[in-house]
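lol forgot to send this yesterday, sorry. struct tokens for the thing we talked abt
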């Protein structure tokens, strides 16, 4: 199975840990967390299953690092885009495009994130949820600035609804990536501007 580098750790060239996490994400997305063994992950990166323990304590720790890294990447990317200069509509569009691009480039990670929060340890779940809440707040601020008259509760609900729309991409591959990206951006912005 080919392994593509992902922004799981630093966004730099994939090292062995990143390769393992990328392979695990693909396997977890296709077979479920409980349907994948250490030997399966090792085989996907060309090492024995037990050799994975030189890089990770357990399959649980792999999932924890994977979902924490995704959440941190989204938060940092969202903050960076929100802080760039521009009018409120430009900032909101930048956030939407960032999330759309991530979802299209990393459908396995989106699938794993959606399906596996319950499989995290309590400590990892708490950390992931905290990062996700902060990411949502970046969006709430941007929506509130771009959509006149929207209340905070509506902005928060709209952000979650748009995440659902964008995160549906692993199940929606009827269009090419560029065409689908533009459609998702337009649908997301339309939904957000309707959130009054």
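and heres what i got for the seq, position by position
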């Amino acid at each position: 199975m080919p392994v593509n580098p992902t922004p799981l750790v630093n966004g730099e060239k994939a090292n062995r840990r990143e390769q393992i996490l990328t392979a695990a994400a693909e396997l977890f997305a296709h077979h479920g967390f409980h349907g994948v063994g250490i030997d399966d992950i090792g085989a996907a990166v060309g090492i024995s299953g037990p050799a994975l323990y030189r890089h990770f304590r357990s399959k649980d720790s792999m999932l924890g690092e994977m979902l924490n890294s995704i959440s941190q990447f989204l938060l940092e990317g969202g903050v960076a885009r929100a802080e760039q200069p521009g009018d409120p509509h430009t900032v909101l569009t930048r956030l939407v495009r960032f999330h759309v691009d991530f979802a299209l480039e990393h459908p396995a990670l989106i699938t794993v994130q959606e399906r596996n929060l319950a499989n995290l340890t309590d400590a990892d779940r708490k950390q992931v949820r905290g990062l996700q809440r902060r990411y949502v707040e970046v969006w709430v601020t941007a929506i509130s600035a771009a959509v006149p008259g929207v209340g905070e509760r509506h902005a928060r609900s709209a952000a979650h609804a748009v995440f659902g729309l964008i995160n549906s991409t692993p199940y929606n591959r009827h269009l090419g990536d560029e065409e689908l990206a533009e459609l998702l951006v337009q649908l997301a912005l339309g939904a957000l501007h309707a959130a009054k």
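The domain at 59-193 is CATH 1.10.357.10 (Tetracycline Repressor; domain 2). anyway ping me if u want another try
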